[in-house]
C-alpha cells in the first residue's frame, strides 16, 4: 500500500514539473531594425554624416569593406536600443564618383555565449561625387 501511494505521489510530482516547464516557455520578440535612411551622399570633399537606428535583439554592429569610409556606432538611449551610426568619408581624389555599402546588422545570441542564433541585415548605400 505504501509503495502504491508513493508511486502516485511521484507520478503527480512528475506531472506538476512537466506542466511547470511548459508554462515557462520564453517569449521571443522578433528581431527588429529601423534605419532612418538607406542612402548617404557626400561631395568630393568628404565629411561626416550620421544615421539614426533602433533595434531589438542582443546586439548590433556595422561593417563596410571600403577603404575610404570609416564607421562608428554610438549609443543614444539609456537602454541601448537607440543608436547613431557615424559615417566619415575621406576626400575623393580619384576623379571618379564612388560608392560603397555598409551592412547594419542586429543579432540574437544563441544558447552558447557569443554564438548567433538569428541575424537581420539592412544595407546603407554610400555615394561620393567626384567634384
From TrEMBL:
Keyword hit for S-adenosyl-L-methionine: no
Keywords, alphabetical: Signal
Region forming the signal peptide: 1-23
Residue runs in coiled coils: none
Family matches, as InterPro entries: BACON, Ig-like_fold
Protein name as it appears in the record: BACON domain-containing protein
Gene3D superfamilies with a match to the protein in the record: Immunoglobulins
Amino acid at each position: 500500500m505504501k509503495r502504491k501511494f508513493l508511486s502516485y505521489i511521484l507520478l503527480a510530482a512528475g506531472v506538476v514539473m512537466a506542466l511547470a516547464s511548459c508554462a515557462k516557455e520564453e517569449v521571443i520578440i522578433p528581431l527588429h531594425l529601423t534605419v532612418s535612411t538607406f542612402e548617404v551622399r557626400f561631395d568630393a570633399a568628404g565629411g561626416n554624416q550620421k544615421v539614426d537606428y533602433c533595434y531589438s535583439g542582443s546586439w548590433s554592429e556595422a561593417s563596410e569593406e571600403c577603404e575610404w569610409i570609416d564607421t562608428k556606432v554610438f549609443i543614444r538611449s539609456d537602454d541601448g536600443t537607440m543608436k547613431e551610426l557615424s559615417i566619415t568619408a575621406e576626400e575623393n581624389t580619384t576623379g571618379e564618383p564612388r560608392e560603397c555599402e555598409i551592412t547594419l546588422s542586429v543579432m540574437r545570441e544563441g544558447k552558447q555565449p557569443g554564438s548567433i542564433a538569428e541575424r537581420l541585415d539592412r544595407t546603407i548605400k554610400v555615394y561620393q561625387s567626384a567634384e
